[in-house]
Automatic annotation (TrEMBL):
<dbReference type="Pfam" id="PF13183">
    <property type="entry name" value="Fer4_8"/>
</dbReference>
<keyword id="KW-0411">Iron-sulfur</keyword>
<dbReference type="InterPro" id="IPR025192">
    <property type="entry name" value="Succ_DH/fum_Rdtase_N"/>
</dbReference>
<keyword id="KW-0560">Oxidoreductase</keyword>
<dbReference type="Pfam" id="PF13085">
    <property type="entry name" value="Fer2_3"/>
</dbReference>
<dbReference type="InterPro" id="IPR050573">
    <property type="entry name" value="SDH/FRD_Iron-Sulfur"/>
</dbReference>
<dbReference type="InterPro" id="IPR004489">
    <property type="entry name" value="Succ_DH/fum_Rdtase_Fe-S"/>
</dbReference>
<keyword id="KW-0004">4Fe-4S</keyword>
<keyword id="KW-0408">Iron</keyword>
<dbReference type="GO" id="GO:0008177">
    <property type="term" value="F:succinate dehydrogenase (quinone) activity"/>
</dbReference>
<protein>
    <recommendedName>
        <fullName>succinate dehydrogenase</fullName>
        <ecNumber>1.3.5.1</ecNumber>
    </recommendedName>
</protein>
<keyword id="KW-0816">Tricarboxylic acid cycle</keyword>
<dbReference type="InterPro" id="IPR012675">
    <property type="entry name" value="Beta-grasp_dom_sf"/>
</dbReference>
<comment type="similarity">
    <text>Belongs to the succinate dehydrogenase/fumarate reductase iron-sulfur protein family.</text>
</comment>
<dbReference type="InterPro" id="IPR017896">
    <property type="entry name" value="4Fe4S_Fe-S-bd"/>
</dbReference>
<keyword id="KW-0479">Metal-binding</keyword>
<dbReference type="InterPro" id="IPR036010">
    <property type="entry name" value="2Fe-2S_ferredoxin-like_sf"/>
</dbReference>
Length: 254
């Protein structure tokens, strides 16, 4: 009697377009050692046949680096938002349920539109302004102690997992979420970025900013890079309080 081949079952939440009706489709694939969710989706794309033996359309999802650096392959796996490139099949309970992040509008299947997050980064000026594109020479040095924690914040890959995990980020709220807030702290700490510090702080002092954080701490627990997001939020609470007093007394001193 031939030995039965081990298989892996995936239940994928699908949607044919932004206005489409969501539905689930199940796929059964041959098991391979060290298989991750991305490799399984690649197999479905190569041979899009569901567990009923019917040919269907390939599942749509985002991916790029495949090594947890770009943040593109975020999705909800067995109820938890995470990166599908590092989600190993051997560590997941079956059937493995794949769903798009609900915080963002669905484009198709597991692919979502994360414009909300990128728009928030624009609001808080999450960049370092420079005067021209020519060689300006070495920039100002950052103290080693500050550089160490700033490096931890710079690991953010804009994956959106922390926004998906946060109960205060939803379609009824303007809250920009933990990732853009942490970027405010990062760029305010930079010797050159500090010139826009007050602008960034005032942006998060209004609607959708710090006041909308409920301190659930889901963000720091779900972040794939272990970024101390709640520490950043606590530090920003202090900074915005100082900024509020400066605004009240008309002081622009650092």
């Amino acid at each position: 009697m031939a030995e039965q081949t081990k298989t892996v079952t995936f239940k994928v939440k699908r949607q044919d377009g932004p206005e489409g009706t969501p539905y689930y489709e199940t796929f059964e694939l041959p098991y391979r050692p060290n298989m991750n969710v991305i490799s399984a989706l690649m197999e479905v794309r190569r041979n899009p046949v569901n567990n009923e033996g019917k040919e269907t359309t390939p599942v749509n999802w985002d991916m790029n680096c495949l090594e947890e650096v770009c943040g593109a392959c975020s999705m909800v796996i067995n109820g938890k938002p995470r990166q599908s490139c590092t989600a190993l099949v051997d560590q997941l309970e079956q059937p493995i349920v794949l769903e798009p992040m609900s915080t963002f509008p669905v484009v198709r299947d597991l692919q979502v539109d994360r414009s909300r997050m990128f728009d928030s980064l624009k609001k808080v000026k999450a960049w370092i302004p420079i005067d021209g594109t020519y060689d300006l020479g070495p920039g100002p040095r950052m103290p080693e102690k500050k550089r160490q924690w700033a490096y931890e914040l710079s690991k953010c890959m804009t994956c959106g997992v922390c926004l998906e995990a946060c109960p205060n980020v939803n379609s009824k709220s303007d809250f920009i979420g933990p990732a853009p807030l942490s970027q405010v702290r990062l760029f305010n700490a930079h010797p050159t970025g500090e010139m826009n510090k007050s602008e960034r702080l005032e942006e998060i002092m209004g609607d959708g900013g710090l006041a909308n954080c409920g301190n659930s701490q889901n963000c720091v627990q779900s972040c794939p890079k272990g970024i101390p997001l709640t520490t950043s939020i606590a530090a920003l609470n202090r900074d915005t309080t100082v900024q509020m007093f400066r605004n009240f007394f008309g002081s622009d001193q650092g």
